[in-house]
Model the fold of this input.
Amino acid sequence: EPEVTQTPSHQVTQMGQEVILRCVPISNHLYFYWYRQILGQKVEFLVSFYNNEISEKSEIFDDQFSVERPDGSNFTLKIRSTKLEDSAMYFCASSGDRGDTEAFFGQGTRLTVV
Amino acid sequence: QKEVEQNSGPLSVPEGAIASLNCTYSDRGSQSFFWYRQYSGKSPELIMFIYSNGDKEDGRFTAQLNKASQYVSLLIRDSQPSDSATYLCAVSKQGAQKLVFGQGTRLTINP
Done:
């Protein structure tokens, strides 16, 4: 069964460092997303990406965040200068031919900023 | 008012019984409704989606949608201990990309 894969599963970084979280969406999907979940809190939308550009982003997704699809398979989230409050699980998701159809999530990357 | 509201629980149900999970949403423009299951430390796993008013059944799961009341529910029949998890309700508007999640309801099935 096709699945969304994310790497790494766990990343520890020092405050102020840049991190790149990587995702391989399901191959025939067209919409890609990043969500985050701070421990004990709800899942929050960060950004959606369609046709090689950001289609929607939340207030959380400020200038320190960026996304890229560097090739035909990978989708990345970069956090330029990490803060302690960026510590969270980051989930990549993808969905098919319409943005409001079923989204499938990767297993997540646990980011710990120290 | 929260966009998507769920009772955080915990909801405790005996094995074999029906578990009923509820969700309300505030945006009348919401068109698509999803139930995800999340085990502790894991990612959300899609278990049901519903777009039209009424009931939708898939195995032991039934999703119910009432757009007039802005209410969506999930019934789990013949509950099993493996159903113990947090159940997340998520909604999206037509043509919109983002899912808005509730805080989740923690369900425990007691053997």
Observations:
- Chain A has a mean pLDDT of 94.
- Chain A has no helices and eleven strands.
